[in-house]
Amino acid sequence: MSIRLTPSGWFKSSFSSQSSNCVELRSFGTTVLVRDSKYTGSAVQQPIVSVDSDHWPAFLELARDRVSGAVAESVAIAVHEDGGAVITGQGVPLVYDRQEWDAFVRGVATGEFDFE
């Protein structure tokens, strides 16, 4: 497994290669944080979706299967016909295009984000 760790401690899929446009994750205690690397504003205001670690396997299953659905009551994935996806949680939407989502899903399929 070859996870790419950014200087800030966030992970991205090894399938994202050198791209700066990707799904980034960080395991933080009993929560997995998700953000969009395209964000260029203030770090304090960066949109982040929190997924409880108990719901993380279900989140990964939705992503791997490329289907829309909700995990618990507060986090959802909407997969679009063009291959992109939107992760929504706590009122925060994170929008990914086909290439970004594909790189993340490929990482999910190979177990790169199986935090234990």
What is the straight-line distance between the termini? 14 Å
Which sheet architecture does the biggest sheet show? Answer: 5 strands, antiparallel
DSSP summary, beta strand count: 9
Low-confidence stretches: 1-7
Broad structural category: alpha+beta
Radius of gyration: 13 Å
How many helices? The count is: 2
List the helices and strands and how they pair.
Elements: E1 4-5, E2 11-12, E3 23-28, E4 31-36, E5 48-52, H1 56-65, E6 69-71, E7 75-79, E8 85-89, E9 92-96, H2 98-109
Antiparallel strand pairs: 1-2, 2-3, 3-4, 4-5, 6-7, 7-8, 8-9
Q: Could you explain the architecture of this structure?
A:
The strands form 2 sheets. A 5-stranded antiparallel beta sheet has the order 1-2-3-4-5. The chain starts with a strand and ends in a 7-residue tail after the last helix. Helices cover 19% and strands 34% of the residues. The N terminus is likely disordered. With 116 residues, it is α+β, with helices and mostly antiparallel strands. It has one domain. It is built from 2 helices and 9 strands. A hairpin with a 5-residue loop joins strand 7 and strand 8. Helix 1 crosses helix 2.
